[in-house]
């Protein structure tokens, strides 16, 4: 059953890719419209929009979903609730596809909320306190983006339509709300803490979440709305993305958890995509989104096999000599890591190198330039540090950890490996058929490789330093603690959670349960009661007066 499902998703991927390339070449678009409700100038229309971008993105989502389902058939074979697991994956992927093909804010909200709810169920799949806490933080962070979409739907009623494709200009308030929704879903600063916590989900789900779904939804929304953004919003996005890249790179260099290092690398690459959107290159940002999905899903699938074969150890200090235990997985993992660094002629090189060169050609200040290149160097540093620990460090575990080979898992890894090697060059020829005119002096052209060399050397140095054995003074310890905890972002959320809940409770009691209650429902009830009381007194007085008049008439009749 699951094999058939994986096959159907793979066929859908093939069809979507072929039609997407045809639409890109012929510059075609296809839209389906269903009028659900009409009232004066406000029309509730359900739209389905297909263009080359949506179809290629659907092909990427369905391809990785197919590989993840194929991988999970072996990885989760002993799980008692594997049917529930597969059903959650289907809901998760369906919500993502619904969001991709929707140019209407109402239908975007359906896919957006579906992603949030299904991700909550998937992160909390393993019943433990850590999973429940991580899933709650994930859904609460993403709920902020849902609120922004709801506010946007109500504000779009002023324009008489929820279809954003027909707008040539949009209010700055609307654009600010869209930007907040996008950076929340793509985990940019200050909403970055939920992404590493989502590692509590099973490894196949981590592969799906970090490559082509959930986190890329925010980037996709920003790419779609890019033509409506003015300079101030783009510059603000550039600042946030550079800070996110720098924060994630510095934290990954202090981290020892294998899955968390890969998760922080996702955060860095998301910052690079949003940086590309901020320099007004949405097509290039989409190109990097597609190439990143291939090697990031491969990294997570390989990490799942590594963790399983090293007795569920995620600490890279306890994983060593991989080339002796599992040479094929070691080769695949190192290839995906080099693709992450943007090594020449691998998939990541074609998008990453072009983004950096276009960024250099853009007019940016020194601070953005410095943070961008330092983040690039940090990416090289934590990647080679991780590879050094996994391959060349002295043996910290038993050599009896025999590599357990599964055919289905190997098939999915081989397909993603081929895509990580060649997919970037194929898409580069298709997306950018004409050559990009890039003019840079020699010192700027070679500065990329100088920073990469610095990152490589710093990664090797960090892998040889034993932080715990050094007597750090309080300032160095503060710096180490600051960088290793994502600039204290998770602690800010955890420590202030009770204060936030108490504030909301007090606000509820003071506003909704007191003043708002008094001014609305209670006021209405009091008014109705006073009206009834007035009517009662009026009727009572009328009866007394009528009785008195009758009494007087009777007395007068007796007198006569």
Automatic annotation (TrEMBL):
Protein localization: Mitochondrion inner membrane
Keyword set includes Cell cycle: no
InterPro entries assigned to the protein according to its UniProt record, in alphabetical order: NADH_DH_su5_C, ND/Mrp_TM, NU5C-like, Proton_antipo_N
All residue ranges annotated as the NADH-Ubiquinone oxidoreductase (complex I) chain 5 N-terminal domain in the record: 41-86
GO biological process, one term: electron transport coupled proton transport
Transmembrane segments: 7-25, 45-73, 85-102, 108-128, 140-159, 165-184, 205-223, 229-249, 261-279, 285-307, 328-346, 366-388, 408-432, 447-465, 477-493, 536-557
Membrane topology: Multi-pass membrane protein
Organism superkingdom: Eukaryota
Gene Ontology molecular function: NADH dehydrogenase (ubiquinone) activity; NADH dehydrogenase activity
UniProt catalytic activity: a ubiquinone + NADH + 5 H(+)(in) = a ubiquinol + NAD(+) + 4 H(+)(out)
Keyword rRNA processing: no
Keywords of the record: Electron transport, Membrane, Mitochondrion, Mitochondrion inner membrane, NAD, Respiratory chain, Translocase, Transmembrane, Transmembrane helix, Transport, Ubiquinone
One term under GO cellular component: mitochondrial inner membrane
Domain NADH:quinone oxidoreductase/Mrp antiporter transmembrane: 102-375
Pfam families in the cross-refs: NADH5_C, Proton_antipo_M, Proton_antipo_N
Function: Core subunit of the mitochondrial membrane respiratory chain NADH dehydrogenase (Complex I) that is believed to belong to the minimal assembly required for catalysis. Complex I functions in the transfer of electrons from NADH to the respiratory chain. The immediate electron acceptor for the enzyme is believed to be ubiquinone.
Family: Belongs to the complex I subunit 5 family.
Protein name: NADH-ubiquinone oxidoreductase chain 5
Provenance organism: Spathius agrili (Emerald ash borer parasitoid)
């Amino acid at each position: 059953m699951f094999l058939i499902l994986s096959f159907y998703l793979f066929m859908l991927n093939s069809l979507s890719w072929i039609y997407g390339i045809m639409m890109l070449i012929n510059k075609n678009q296809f839209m389906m419209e269903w009028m659900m409700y009409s009232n004066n100038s406000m029309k509730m229309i359900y739209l389905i929009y297909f263009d080359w971008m949506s179809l290629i993105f659907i092909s990427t989502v369905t391809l990785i979903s197919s590989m993840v389902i194929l991988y999970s058939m072996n990885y989760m074979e002993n799980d008692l609730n594997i049917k529930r697991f597969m059903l959650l994956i289907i809901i998760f992927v369906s919500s993502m596809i619904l969001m991709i093909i929707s140019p209407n804010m109402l239908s975007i909200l359906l896919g957006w909320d579906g992603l949030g709810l299904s991700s909550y169920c998937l992160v909390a799949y393993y019943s433990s306190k850590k999973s429940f806490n991580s899933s709650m933080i994930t859904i609460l962070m993403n709920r902020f983006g849902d609120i922004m979409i709801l506010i946007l739907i109500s504000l779009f009623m002023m324009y008489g339509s929820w279809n954003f494709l027909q707008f040539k200009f949009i209010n700055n308030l609307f654009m600010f709300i869209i930007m907040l929704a996008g950076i929340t879903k793509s985990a940019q600063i200050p909403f970055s803490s939920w992404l590493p916590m989502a590692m509590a989900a099973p490894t196949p789900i981590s592969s799906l979440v970090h490559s082509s779904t959930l986190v890329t939804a925010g980037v996709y929304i920003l790419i779609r709305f890019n033509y409506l953004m003015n300079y101030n919003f783009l510059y603000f996005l550039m600042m946030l993305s550079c800070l996110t890249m720098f924060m994630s790179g510095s934290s990954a260099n202090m981290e020892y958890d294998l899955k968390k290092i890969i998760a922080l690398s996702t955060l860095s690459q998301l910052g690079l995509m949003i940086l590309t959107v901020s320099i007004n290159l949405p097509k290039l940002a989409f190109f990097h989104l597609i190439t990143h999905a291939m090697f990031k899903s491969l990294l997570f699938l390989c990490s799942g096999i590594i963790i399983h074969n090293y007795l569920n150890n995620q600490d890279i200090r306890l994983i060593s000599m991989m080339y002796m235990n599992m040479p094929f997985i070691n080769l695949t993992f190192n290839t995906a890591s080099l693709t992450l660094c943007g090594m020449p002629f691998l998939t990541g090189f074609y998008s990453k190198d072009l983004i950096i060169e276009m960024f250099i050609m853009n007019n940016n200040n020194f601070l953005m330039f410095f943070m961008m290149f330092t983040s690039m160097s940090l990416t090289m540093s934590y990647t080679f540090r991780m590879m050094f620990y996994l391959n060349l460090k002295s043996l910290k575990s038993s050599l009896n950890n025999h590599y357990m080979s599964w055919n289905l898992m190997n098939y999915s890894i081989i397909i993603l490996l081929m895509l990580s090697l060649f997919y970037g060059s194929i898409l580069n020829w298709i997306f950018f058929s004409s050559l990009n005119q890039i003019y840079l002096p020699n010192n700027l052209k070679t500065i990329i490789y100088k920073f990469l060399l610095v990152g490589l050397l710093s990664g090797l140095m960090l892998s040889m330093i034993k932080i715990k054995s050094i007597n750090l003074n309080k300032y160095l310890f503060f710096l180490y603690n600051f960088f290793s905890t994502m600039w204290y972002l998770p602690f800010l959320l955890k420590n202030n959670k009770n204060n936030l809940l108490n504030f909301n409770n007090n606000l509820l009691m003071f506003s909704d349960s007191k003043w708002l209650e008094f001014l609305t429902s209670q006021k209405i009830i009091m008014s109705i009661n006073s009206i009834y009381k007035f009517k009662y007194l009026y009727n009572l007085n009328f009866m007394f007066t009528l009785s008195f008049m009758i009494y007087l008439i009777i007395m007068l009749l007796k007198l006569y």
